[in-house]
Amino acid sequence: EVHLVESGGGLVQPGGSLRLSCAASGFTFSGSWMSWVRQAPGKGLEWVANINLDGSEKYYVESVKGRFSISRDNAKNSLYLQMNSLRAEDTAVYYCARGWTYESWGQGTLVTVSS
Amino acid sequence: DVVMTQSPLSLPVTLGQPASISCRSSQSLVSSDGNTLLSWFQQRPGQSPRRLLYRVSNRDSGVPDRFSGSGSGTDFTLKISRVEAEDVGIYYCMQGTHWPPFTFGQGTKVEIK
Predict the structure, then answer these.
(1) B39/A101 touch (CB, cutoff 8 Å), yes or no
(2) What does pLDDT average to in each consecutive run of 10 residues of chain A (115 residues)?
(3) 3-state secondary structure of A30
(4) DSSP H helices in chain B
(5) Fewer Cβ in 10 A, N or C end of chain A?
(6) What's phi and psi for B8, nearest 5 deg?
(7) Which chain B residue's Cα is nearest to A36?
(8) Collapsing DSSP states into helix, strand and coil, what is residue A25?
(9) Which DSSP symbol is given to B102?
(10) How far apart are CA A91 and CA A69, in angstroms?
């Protein structure tokens, strides 16, 4: 059974940083593109970033370019999202998702950016 | 960016009755290899999203056959043949043909009358 478990969320001040992690199991992690998708409180879904199999290709939504960095460690079956220069509008539940079209999702981790 | 527009945004339905959600894209979702990367997701209250359908009409494992998808080009539809109580939630369409960015519809809230 596929399992994706996010961690690392919390309360951070504007301008601060957080690193999210996603531990994967139940599938061949190194054989799957991986993504981060977020959902602001009471809002819809927004793709944030994705990464190819070996981490050599990374793509971001315009609003996070230069501030967020996606990475992966295939030896540890883990996906990461380094978030810097956080803004109030980054407040959301962040989900990691497997595959090109998100065939599996984690339970999400809440990031709150507030002073 | 491809804009995905869903309608209606709110859908009250009677148990056992059919329901239909429309999703329209601002440009054709047919890719250069002939695939149409249009997916549907269900998000039940308090839960993570779950993919129901991919490439327009292919059901994911464990998805009841009362869910079906159809459409082509820019117009797509999710149908529930007979709504059950467990179908309450928000439904999103998403395109993966023209990216980045991947884009979602605004979501359609399905509730029981």
Answers:
(1) yes
(2) 97 98 97 98 98 97 98 98 98 96 96 97
(3) helix
(4) none
(5) N
(6) -75, 175
(7) B102
(8) strand
(9) P
(10) 17
Mean pLDDT of all residues in chain B? 97
Token pair recorded at residue A3: 């399992």
Q: Which neighbouring-strand residues pair with B22?
A: B7, B77
pLDDT given at position A100: 82
Disruptive mutation site among B51, B57, B95 for chain A (greatest number of A CBs within 10 Å) = B51
Angle at A35 (CA atoms; ends B31, B33), nearest 5 degrees: 15
Nearest chain A residue to B96 by CA distance is A101
pLDDT at B50: 98
Q: Which two tokens stand for residue B18?
A: 């059919």
The reported pLDDT for the residue numbered B48 is 98
Torsion angles phi and psi, residue A28, rounded to 5: -80, 95
- B81: which 2 tokens? 């043949």
Q: Which residues of A touch B (CB under 8 A)?
A: 35, 37, 44-47, 50, 59-62, 95, 100-108
Structure-token pair, residue A39: 């959902």
What is the distance between the alpha carbons of residues B96 and B33, in angstroms, rounded to a whole number? 13
Interchain CB distance below 8 Å, B100 and A47 = yes
